[in-house]
Amino acid sequence: MRAYNLGKTAILAVFAALLLVSGPASASVIDQMIDGLSGAVFYKISLFGTPVELIVIWMAAPMLFLTVYFGFINLRSFKLAGRILKGQYRDDNAPGEVTQFQALSTALSGTVGLGNIAGVAIAIAMGGPGAAFWMTVIGFFAMTLKFAECTLGVKYRKHHEDGTVSGGPMYYLGRGLAARGWKKIGFVLAWSYALFAIPSLLQIAQVNQSYSQFSAVTGIDAPWLFGIVLAGLVAVVIVGGISKIASVTVKLVPLMAALYIGAALFIILSNAAQIPDAFALIIREAWKPEAGIGAIIGAFVWGMRRAVYSTEAGLGSATIAHAAAKTREPVSEGMVALLEPFIDTVVISSMTALVIVVTGAWQVEGLTDIQMTSWAFNSVIDGFDIVLAVAVVLFAYSTIISWGYYSSKIWAFVFGSSTTSNTLFKVVYVVALIPGGVFTVSQVFDIMDSFFFLMAVPNIIGIYLMAGELKRDIKSYHARLKSGEIKRADQMVESPAR
């Protein structure tokens, strides 16, 4: 109990310090704190004579290992995942709070957004066009990691008497490893994850980049006012919980994605003659042997950093949304979840990269963030920067409300789920959004990258330990599907939820 109280005190102290630096603290103090945090998380080792961030290797390894270990399930199960998503195996009497489609929409609203618009631009600005190639490759392998963690999220979710559920790494690390006789290890990993995840309440990247585009289009210089208005709109939705959030995201995400993808396709097709050269440039820059192994690794590292932020694979955050899905089959939800990185990174981020390259935006001096993407769109569709500003704000909004749900579950795990605790969380979460526009883009992404990568450390350890169990679950699911034990929705007989 003493350790528990110390843990809560430590979390509040760290969170208070982070909120403090967003206020009137001097720029040098902010930079020193951010540099110290980023330097510790992104510790470098020498690889082929080139400094490489150890955490990047830590993230890449399970994606590759699990893809091979599960027999390339990201490819083999792609069609089945689509059938599940369409509702062919839907069971309305299964435990859970939302449909599998709604769970995916909520999770996608947390990933599809600024990572695809600003994140790709930042990756290209820092690592060259080759970073976009590595983002796509990583997105492909991230599908398997997302499958693994979301399957565990449903399998070890906690059911409450009122019909609601709680899931996420805090639960499957603790409950899953305890079921294997490793209770102490599970306890340490679950609480480590919670400690690292609490600062993710600071969704400043979403506020920062949406304000950047809003300010560029309107000319309004009012970051605090923008933060207050956005925070108020978020508060309206997160009060309603997962059902309210899902009802908003299930409408908002497809609309935003259609708008953005439609515009991107128009630009790409308008520059159809440049597409072969654009692909050639991206691939050449990804490998560029003439620049040495260091340049290749540099492009890979930036692709990896932005791909993790875009897909959230390995962070465990999306498992919280997927744990609420109505299903009796954890593996089926894992298959639905593997579609996320494909939609988010393999498709949407790749399209953004193509738009930036074919228009030449990556060569325009001084463009290092979302303004690069904005310039690219506006160079073909005059005035689209205004449409993009609206889309960006909506993308940021949907991501923030999804993370509001994620963060509420983490908060409840640490501080309890009483009415007082729940109210305090909502106040803290909403207020923490307000200063997001004040930070610089480098400060924002150093802060968020640091905390996101820290979350992945205990999560990935747990997934490694339960990989064998997951493989057996996959085999069992396919066998029962083949035998007809798992029935399609039109074959099911109504039965009470378990």
Automatic annotation (TrEMBL):
Where does the secretion signal sit in this chain? 1-27
Membrane spanning segments where?
A: 51-73, 103-125, 131-148, 185-204, 224-243, 255-274, 286-304, 342-364, 384-406, 451-470
Superkingdom assignment: Bacteria
| Primary residence | membrane
How does the entry describe its membrane topology? Multi-pass membrane protein
Name where it's found.
Answer: Cell inner membrane; Cell membrane
Q: Which UniProt keywords apply?
A: Cell inner membrane, Cell membrane, Membrane, Signal, Symport, Transmembrane, Transmembrane helix, Transport
Tell me any Pfam family this protein matches: Na_Ala_symp
Q: What family does this belong to?
A: Belongs to the alanine or glycine:cation symporter (AGCS) (TC 2.A.25) family.
What is the protein's given name? Alanine glycine permease
Q: Which organism is it from?
A: Iodidimonas muriae
